[in-house]
């Protein structure tokens, strides 16, 4: 059974702070890792993808991957109230056409 | 901007009825995925569809469900004899056409299905 685990939160941070979101996965065959943001009642919106160990930065977002520890994280710098949402971690194998396995998501609340 | 749209945005049906949810691509897509999300729960994979054939399906995708591409463009998910527990958001997803990787899945806006 392939599992993706996330702390459900809520994670509360003040505006301007760094928010750190964590995710672990059970399938060592996972090769592709994604972070989605989901506002209440809306569809998941892709933020970042990461495929190799290490860090990947895109604006205020940094994804970190450690395949040996089966761990992926998302850092949000200079957090804004508009970042308040649920962040979903998703993983898949490297085969085309295969499914994303999602975690339950971490709810982030950024206070102004 | 999503490359797929979904219709209807909200569908209300009586238990036991059949529903058809539609995914409408903006441009040519070969890969499609259907997911569902029961309120308060995680996004769950249902089925993937490549080049007009099912490539993978989950345990959720039983005989009650079917997918097809009836006119070569729109992509439908049919749920026969709906049950109360089928109430959920149903999302269609697809990679962007022309992107180097087909791994990345972009979600449509979803259809909220309510079974009474």
Descriptive account of the structure:
The complex is a heterodimer of chains A (112) and B (116). With 112 residues, chain A is mainly beta. Chain A has no helices and 11 strands. In chain B, 0% of the residues lie in helices and 50% in strands. In chain B, the strands form 2 sheets. In chain B, strands 2, 4, 5, 6, 9, 10 and 11 form a 7-stranded mixed sheet that branches. The mean pLDDT of chain B is 90. The interface between A and B is medium-sized, with 23 and 26 residues.
- What is the number of helices of chain A? 0
Main β-sheet of chain A, in a few words?
A: 6 strands, mixed
User: Which two protein chains have the largest interface (Cβ within 8 Å of the partner's Cβ), and how many residues from each?
Assistant: A-B, 23 and 26 residues
Shape of chain A: globular
Cα-atom radius of gyration of chain A: 13 Å
Low-confidence stretches of chain A: none
The overall strand count of chain A is 11
User: Strand tally of chain B, please?
Assistant: 11
Q: Work out the helicity level of chain A.
A: under 10%
Termini Cα gap of chain A: 41 Å
Question: How much strand of chain A?
Answer: over 45%
Would you tell me the overall average pLDDT of chain A? Answer: 94
Task: Please identify the structural class of chain B as seen in this structure.
Answer: mainly beta
N- to C-terminal separation of chain B? Answer: 33 Å
Q: Give the number of helices of chain B.
A: 0
Order of helices and strands of chain A: EEEEEEEEEEE
Q: Topology as H/E string of chain B?
A: EEEEEEEEEEE
User: What profile does the largest beta sheet of chain B have?
Assistant: 7 strands, mixed
Question: Mean pLDDT of chain B, rounded to whole units?
Answer: 90
């Amino acid at each position: 059974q392939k599992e993706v685990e996330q702390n459900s939160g809520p994670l509360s941070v003040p505006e301007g702070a760094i928010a750190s979101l964590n995710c672990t996965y059970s399938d060592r065959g996972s090769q592709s890792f994604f972070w989605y943001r989901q506002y209440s009642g809306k569809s998941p919106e892709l933020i970042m993808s990461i495929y190799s160990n290490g860090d990947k930065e895109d604006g205020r977002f940094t994804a970190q991957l450690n395949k040996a520890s089966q761990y992926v994280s998302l850092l949000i710098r200079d957090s804004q109230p508009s970042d308040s949402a649920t962040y979903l971690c998703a993983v898949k194998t490297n085969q085309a056409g295969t499914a994303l396995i999602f975690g339950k998501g971490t709810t982030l609340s950024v206070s102004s | 901007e999503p490359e797929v749209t979904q219709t209807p945005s909200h569908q209300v049906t009586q238990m036991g009825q059949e529903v058809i949810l539609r995914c409408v691509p903006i441009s040519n897509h070969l890969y499609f995925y259907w997911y569902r999300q029961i309120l308060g729960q995680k996004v769950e994979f249902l089925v993937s569809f490549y080049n007009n054939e099912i490539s993978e399906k989950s345990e959720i995708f039983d005989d009650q469900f079917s997918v097809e591409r009836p006119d070569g463009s729109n992509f439908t998910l049919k749920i026969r004899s709906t049950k109360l527990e089928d109430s959920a958001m149903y999302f269609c997803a697809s990679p962007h056409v022309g992107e180097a990787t087909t791994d990345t899945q972009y979600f449509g806006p979803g259809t909220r299905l309510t079974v009474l």
